[in-house]
C-alpha cells in the first residue's frame, strides 16, 4: 500500500475519496464512456427510444460494460439512467433507476471507483416548460439516488441552460456534489445562450463541476469547454471543468450536433476516433485545465484506456487493461513482418492519417437540419 492507494507493479488502485477531494487535489478523474450506442450495437438497447431497460432486462450486459470501463481506467461508474425519468419510462422508471444504481455500485466496489447518479433533459421542456412538473421528474430520480447513496450527481445532456439550471437546483437538495454538462457546441444552447454564460449560470445554481458531453466530437467539445472556462474567468466564478465527448469525429456538425448528420445513428462507424486521436484529446483537455475527462456515445473502453495511458505520467499509474496493450504500439516489436515491426513507435501512430477504405464516400456530410 502506498500513501494514496494500493500498487500492483505499475498498476494502481486509488483509495476512495470524494469527487471534489480528488479534483481539488489536482487528480485526474476519468469518466466512463458509451452505453446507449454501445449496448444498441450489442443488441440490448432499442434505437429511437434510447431508454435503459437493459439494467432490468439484461443486467449482465450492463455489468459487463461497466467492468470494461473500470478495467480500462474509469474512476467513475455513472448509473445507466439516461432518459430514465417517469416522463420517458412511465411506471418502469423507479425499478430501472434502482437497478442501475445497484449495478454501478457493485462494479465500482471492485475498483474503488465513485458512483454518479445521472439525470438528463426531459422531452417535456420543449413543449411545456413547466418548471414545477419538470423538477418533480428530476426529484423522483434524485430520491432513488439518495436512497442508494450514490457518491455524487450529474445533470447531463441538456440543450437548454434553463432546464439544466432547474436540474442542478434539484440535485443540490441532496447535499451531494453536483456536476452539470450540456450537449452544446461553441454556438451555445438552442436558445442562443453562449457557452460562457451557460457555465456561469450552472455554477451560480450550485454546480461544482461544469462542462459538456455528447453531441460533438473531441475537438469541438474542447473548444466549447474553453469558451466555458473563459466565461467563468470573466465573471470571477470558479468550478472544475469536465468533458465527455463523442467517440466520433464531427467537424461537419451544425448547432444540433451529430444527431443531425445523415449517418446518425446507424452509419457512424467511419467517423470513429482512433485510440491515438483520444491520446491527443486527453492531452489537450489536460492542458486546458480539464481534470474530469471521459466520453459519451461511441466512446469505447479502449478509448478510455487511451485517456488513462496518455495521462499515466501525471496520474502515476496505468489501468489494468494496459496489461494487454503495449504503449504506442510497442508490442508490435514481436511481429514476424519487419514492416509491421517498424510501426512499434510513437511517431508512426501520432503522424498516421488513416484511410477510410471507402473511395466513393465523402469525407464530410451535410447536416439534415
From TrEMBL:
Binds 1 zinc ion per subunit. Its cofactor is Zn(2+). The keyword Iron-sulfur does not apply. The keyword Nucleotidyltransferase does not apply. Keywords: Metal-binding, Methyltransferase, Transferase, Zinc. One of its GO terms (molecular function) is S-methylmethionine-homocysteine S-methyltransferase activity. Zn(2+) binds at residues 214, 296-297. SUPFAM superfamilies: Homocysteine S-methyltransferase. Pathway: Amino-acid biosynthesis; L-methionine biosynthesis via de novo pathway; L-methionine from L-homocysteine (BhmT route): step 1/1. GO terms for biological process: L-methionine salvage; methylation; S-adenosylmethionine metabolic process; S-methylmethionine metabolic process. It comes from the Eukaryota. Homotetramer. Involved in the regulation of homocysteine metabolism. This is Betaine--homocysteine S-methyltransferase 2. It comes from Prolemur simus (Greater bamboo lemur). The lineage of its organism: Eukaryota, Metazoa, Chordata, Craniata, Vertebrata. The gene is BHMT2.
Amino acid at each position: 500500500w502506498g500513501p494514496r492507494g494500493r500498487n500492483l507493479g505499475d498498476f494502481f488502485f486509488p483509495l476512495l475519496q470524494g469527487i471534489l477531494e480528488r479534483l481539488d487535489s489536482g487528480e485526474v478523474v476519468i469518466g466512463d464512456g458509451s452505453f446507449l450506442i454501445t449496448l444498441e450495437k450489442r443488441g440490448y438497447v432499442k434505437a429511437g427510444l434510447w431508454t435503459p431497460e437493459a439494467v432490468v432486462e439484461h443486467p449482465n450486459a450492463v455489468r459487463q460494460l461497466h467492468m470494461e470501463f473500470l478495467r480500462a481506467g474509469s474512476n467513475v461508474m455513472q448509473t445507466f439512467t439516461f432518459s430514465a425519468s417517469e416522463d420517458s419510462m412511465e411506471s418502469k422508471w423507479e425499478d430501472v433507476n434502482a437497478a442501475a444504481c445497484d449495478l454501478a455500485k457493485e462494479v465500482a466496489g471492485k475498483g474503488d471507483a465513485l458512483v454518479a447518479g445521472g439525470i438528463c433533459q426531459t422531452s417535456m421542456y420543449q413543449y411545456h416548460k413547466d418548471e414545477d412538473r419538470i423538477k418533480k421528474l428530476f426529484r423522483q430520480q434524485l430520491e432513488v439516488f439518495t436512497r442508494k447513496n450514490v457518491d455524487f450527481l450529474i445533470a447531463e445532456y441538456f440543450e437548454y441552460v434553463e432546464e439544466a439550471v432547474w436540474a442542478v437546483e434539484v440535485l443540490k437538495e441532496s447535499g451531494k456534489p453536483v456536476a452539470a454538462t450540456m450537449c452544446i457546441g461553441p454556438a451555445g444552447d438552442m436558445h442562443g445562450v453562449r457557452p460562457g454564460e451557460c457555465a456561469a449560470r450552472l455554477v451560480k445554481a450550485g454546480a461544482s463541476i461544469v462542462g459538456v458531453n455528447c453531441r460533438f466530437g473531441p475537438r469541438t467539445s474542447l473548444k466549447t469547454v474553453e469558451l466555458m472556462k473563459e466565461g467563468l474567468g470573466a465573471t470571477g466564478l470558479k468550478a472544475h471543468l469536465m468533458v465527455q465527448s463523442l467517440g466520433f469525429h464531427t467537424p461537419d456538425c451544425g448547432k444540433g450536433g451529430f444527431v443531425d448528420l445523415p449517418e446518425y445513428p446507424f452509419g457512424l462507424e467511419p467517423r470513429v476516433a482512433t485510440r491515438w486521436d483520444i491520446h491527443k484529446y486527453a492531452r489537450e483537455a489536460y492542458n486546458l485545465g480539464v481534470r474530469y475527462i471521459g466520453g459519451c456515445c461511441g466512446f469505447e473502453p479502449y478509448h478510455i484506456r487511451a485517456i488513462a495511458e496518455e495521462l499515466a505520467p501525471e496520474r502515476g499509474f496505468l489501468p489494468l487493461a494496459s496489461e494487454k496493450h503495449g504503449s504506442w504500439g510497442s508490442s508490435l516489436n514481436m511481429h514476424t513482418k519487419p514492416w509491421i515491426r517498424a510501426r512499434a513507435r510513437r511517431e508512426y501512430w501520432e503522424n498516421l492519417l488513416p484511410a477510410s477504405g471507402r473511395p466513393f464516400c465523402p469525407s464530410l456530410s451535410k447536416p439534415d437540419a
